[in-house]
Specification:
Elements lengths: L5 E4 L6 H8 L5 H4 L7 H9 L7 E6 L4 E10 L11 E8 L8 H15 L5 E6 L4 H9 L3 E7 L12 E7 L9 E7 L8 H16 L2 E7 L13 H4 L10 H9 L3 E7 L7 H8 L10 E3 L2 E3 L10 E7 L10 H10 L4 E6 L11 H21 L4 H7 L6 H12 L5
Parallel strand pairs: 4-5, 8-9, 8-10, 10-13, 13-14
Antiparallel strand pairs: 1-2, 2-3, 3-4, 5-7, 6-7, 11-12
The structure holds flavin mononucleotide.
Length: about 400
């Protein structure tokens, strides 16, 4: 079987090394109820036994032709749940480097289609550990509904003593797909009239072209957000900050989002102060502990944010990108080391100058294309990003126009 980015095919012995590489990750198996693989041999053995069935597929990333996960279903007699003969239970996992890009959802949708159309199942079931909500969201996005039921699965190798939350999808030709929830923080004090918002609106339009999106846009300047007092009180009282302001609602919003968009003009080579205040106040979302990841330290998250994608759209007044955007870009990458995408656009006051339409309109068309690509694939081609980030008119011309319209006449 096939989807846009994936092949779903039978497991092969030659997948053993890839399987071991990803299934030995202690963050993967235990979340799904099985222990990490201990050797390539063990992975090969599992391919020849457990995976040697017509109800399980290797999830193969088309770009590299590598098996990066597994998806399938268990018929009633093999299910962990008590279900009828014309029902089945779905299961899936995906390698950690591929988390947060909608790959599980893409694979599961294809299997759902197969289960209903080819196998004629009437109802599909699925379960997940409540401390792995990302797994529940995969099903939710495919139309599954929480039953509210929590049951033990005594046959699981890991977690048999912990109840799983049960979800169900009834074969109904009109499956209402859950839309992705996107939260945008506009850091420009000019709100909708901001230069940056021209880019953001075009990007979101592009995303909408690919799939329906739910977007909550917060004009940060209108929110009551106190500065962090730096006393770490939130770490000592269960994640609650001493300030009772709009940040409480914003943190809730972040917890249920799939995408966080930071949209801002460059101020003193960085993000404007109100947006920085908001970023500082996300402190309750991480713990006080320090963990070494690669060659850097970070605070572990208090919740599972593996599904979250982070997008930065930053505009600026100068014509140059180099020696200008670097601090903002570096800060964003350090704050959100995984799943980030960064768009920078120089000469942006031109977006609010109708006489510049001849160059801004084609630029916005490129941004729209990037938005569509991002919604479809989770990334944007480097060439397209570079084109969007290049000056729209020659630097000197732009500087001369700005100086002629804004600079006081020389005495
Ligand atoms: C306080 C302040 C600081 C700024 N700092 C920079 C800067 O470091 N580099 C730059 O290229 N533009 C800088 N600008 C220009 C803005 O980034 C530019 O005007 C942008 O288009 C405004 O976008 P907005 O309409 O979305 O707010 C600054 C503007 C202000 C008001």
């Amino acid at each position: 079987m096939e989807t846009d980015r994936l092949f779903l095919r039978r497991w092969r012995e030659s997948d053993a090394e890839a399987l071991y590489r990803y299934a030995s990750d202690p963050e993967v198996g235990p979340r799904a109820g099985w222990p990490p693989h201990k050797s390539v041999e063990e992975s090969r053995e599992i391919i020849c036994t457990v995976f040697n069935t017509e109800t399980m597929w290797a999830v193969v990333w088309k770009e590299t032709d590598e098996a990066i996960g597994c998806v399938g279903y268990l018929p009633a007699e093999a299910s962990n749940l008590t279900i009828a003969a014309d029902e089945c239970e779905v299961g899936y996992w995906i390698a950690r480097p591929y988390w947060g890009r909608g790959i599980c959802t893409e694979a599961l949708r294809r299997v759902i289609d197969y289960c209903f159309k080819e196998k004629g199942f009437t109802t599909l079931w699925g379960s997940y550990f409540p401390d792995n909500p990302a797994s529940g969201r995969v099903m939710e996005k495919c139309g599954f509904v929480a039953t509210g039921e929590k049951v033990l699965c005594p046959h699981l190798a890991v977690g048999a003593d912990r109840p799983v939350s049960v979800m169900r999808l009834v074969n109904n030709p009109i499956i209402i797909e859950k839309k992705d929830e996107n939260t945008g923080f506009n850091g420009s004090p000019k709100r909708e009239k901001s230069d940056t918002m021209h880019i953001t609106r075009a990007f979101l339009e592009g995303m909408q072209e690919a799939a329906p999106q739910e977007v909550t846009l917060v004009h940060v300047i209108d929110r009551h957000i106190e500065y962090c007092t730096g006393r770490f009180a939130c770490k000592r009282n269960g994640g609650t900050c001493i300030h009772n302001d709009d940040m409480r609602e914003i943190l809730e919003e972040i917890l249920t989002s799939d995408l966080l968009l930071f949209n801002f003009p460059l101020y003193s080579y960085a993000m404007p102060a109100p947006l920085k205040a908001l970023l500082d106040r996300t402190m309750p979302l991480s713990s006080m502990a320090m963990r070494k990841v690669g060659d850097r330290y970070e605070h572990p998250c208090q919740a599972d944010f593996s599904r979250l994608r982070y997008l930065m759209i930053c505009c600026c007044g100068f014509p140059n990108s180099r020696h200008n955007f670097e601090p903002a870009v570096a800060q964003f990458k350090l704050c959100f080391p995984g799943n980030h995408t960064i768009i920078t656009v120089p000469e942006s006051p031109m977006f609010n100058a109708p006489e510049a339409d001849v160059v801004t309109k084609p630029r916005l068309a490129l941004v729209r294309k990037a938005g569509k690509q991002y919604a479809e694939t989770g990334t944007i081609d480097a060439d397209l990003l570079a084109e969007i980030g290049s000056p729209m008119i020659p630097e000197e011309t732009y500087a001369a126009i700005v100086n002629a319209t804004t600079a006081p006449p020389a005495s």
